[in-house]
Amino acid sequence: MSAATDIKTLVINGQDVSARPDQTILDVARENGINIPTLCHLDGLTDVGACRLCLIEVKGQNKLFPACVTRVEEGMEVTTESERLAKHRRTILELLFAERNHICAVCVANGNCELQSLSQELGLTHVRLPYRNPELNVDASHERFTCDHNRCILCTRCVRVCAEIEGAHVWDVMGRGADCKVITDLETPWGDKNSSCTKCGKCVQVCPTGALYEKGKVGIEKPKHPEFLPYLNLMREAQ
């Protein structure tokens, strides 16, 4: 079979595009300058479809599809922007804000938070849902970093970068539903003397909110450099 026959053709927002069979709708959209909001996606990491902010419409289908884990198909007609999608995305953001304790004015990531930026971009001005106000712990036992579960959105970027890039498998997810949270080493403190943490800081660099941060660095002084991931991923594959 020739390479040409492997190319899929589809339509995104009325624009004719082409794609490889292994690409997702998110891949193709971004290649063609079409923005789809995401929080859990990060180039270089496996997609898990956790945040659902990248939901899109496919003609002929009633349900919505997460663009990051939906493969392209021949003849697809995709819509990435509509009032229905905007409503779903704002509701998802409201749920994220209501579930934990996100108070931007006192957050270490204020001004450098993807959740905050997306809320501004999507026009979220208030939260209509009742806040749960959970009493979650802050793990400051690590000599360099802090984990504040109050600001975690369960995107699992930290889990995936630790497993797929660093190969340390320090982070994991425990619990279900509202009780779900990320943990280190079977829920032992991050800074425990027997911790398997390599202190590389990759988990902190990829965190989209103020859940993981380096001690002594706040706001825009807290640099994040997720652009290193595609390179590291390619190097691991080459090995």
Describe, in plain words, how this protein is organized in 3D.
The chain has two domains: 3-81, Ubiquitin-like (UB roll) (Roll); 106-238, Alpha-Beta Plaits (2-Layer Sandwich). Helices cover 24% and strands 15% of the residues. The chain contains six helices and ten strands; from the N terminus they run E-E-H-E-E-E-H-H-E-E-H-E-E-H-E-H. A hairpin with a 5-residue loop joins strand 6 (138-139) and strand 7 (145-148).
Question: Helices and strands in order, then pairings?
Answer:
Layout: E1 8-12, E2 15-19, H1 25-31, E3 55-58, E4 65-66, E5 77-79, H2 83-99, H3 114-121, E6 138-139, E7 145-148, H4 157-166, E8 171-174, E9 181-184, H5 202-206, E10 212-214, H6 228-238
Parallel strand pairs: 1-5
Antiparallel strand pairs: 1-2, 3-4, 3-5, 6-7, 7-10, 8-9
User: CATH topology of the largest domain, which one?
Assistant: Alpha-Beta Plaits
Chain oligomer state: single chain
Q: CATH top level of the largest domain?
A: Alpha Beta
* Number of separate helices: 6
The dominant shape is: globular
Poorly predicted residue ranges? none
Number of beta strands: 10
Rg over C-alpha atoms, rounded to the nearest angstrom: 19 Å
Order of helices and strands: EEHEEEHHEEHEEHEH
Amount of helix: 10-25%
